[in-house]
Amino acid sequence: MMKVAVIGVGSMGKNHARIYADLPNARLVGVADANESAAHTIAERYRTTPYTDFRTLLDTEKPDAVSIVTPTVEHLSVAQAVIEQGIHLLIEKPIAFRVDEARQIIALAGEAGVKLMVGHIERFNPAIQALKSRLAADELGRVFQIDARRQGPFPARVKDVGVVIDLAVHDLDVMRYLTGAAVRRVFAETERRIHSTYEDLLEGLVRFDDGTVGTLAINWLTPTKIRELVVTGEKGMFRADYLTQDLYFYENATATAGSWDALRILRGVSEGRMVRYVVRKQEPLRAELEAFIAAVENDTPPPVSGEDGLQALILAQALVESGQKHTVVQMKNAEK
Known about the structure:
Structural class: alpha/beta
Shape: globular
Number of domains: 2
CATH topology of the largest domain: Dihydrodipicolinate Reductase, domain 2
Oligomer: single chain
CATH class of the largest domain: Alpha Beta
């Protein structure tokens, strides 16, 4: 049974602890948080040992793997200490506060030979996994556009980054995951309406090397939570709802009428059938942590690598820069 621990048991970290405590092939040996009350509350709830100093946890419990769920600005320092002890690590997104810090974490993990996974949880949403498999089976044909809408109320817990780094990074990663393509350029309009320090509204454009256009409508200003992804292509449109884990297909009847590929585009678009696929519901975080544990147990590459986390952060930072400078940002050699 693998010994695991959680560093940072705030709003997200406490869920890592909950799931680890329930996994049959893992044993939660401790949790750490600078907030003593939080550490003791979670430790008592899941029958483990609380620590206020994560280094003491590492020295005392010697876990095989840990989740790092601290504020983003602390990711590098915590990851360094974990890696120095040869412990495998899952870092909640974003991988780091700055791109150079992300590169440093990746290099350290590689040198130490430990597994590094980044917690881009939306990849493990059953609706997104179903969408990925259907795109891979060419059920949509050529993809034209991906539209992400991720909106909701301002979360008081987030103090160190704006809506681009905290939320848009999810959709940037999902877009890369679905297309398998590099990004050529980005453009963003950002605003700060309620958040006192960082942007809380983003309207973004992403141009991929394969010709796909991505759009992002992200904010902390909407009074109800919306999490939706729409993928439009030759044969119609997929719509994935992250919250309900539903996947819908809206058919382009013209493109499925048996005409030659070249004529499908020329004949245009017409409304066809709508299909709601049966998607087996599952908690994405549990699937993510199970995948992390499996990668460590089986000595296989984690499904979301440090490089994946780095590329999502690079794109998010480029959108922030574009919003500040009101200009297109070219992503030449970003994937190298």
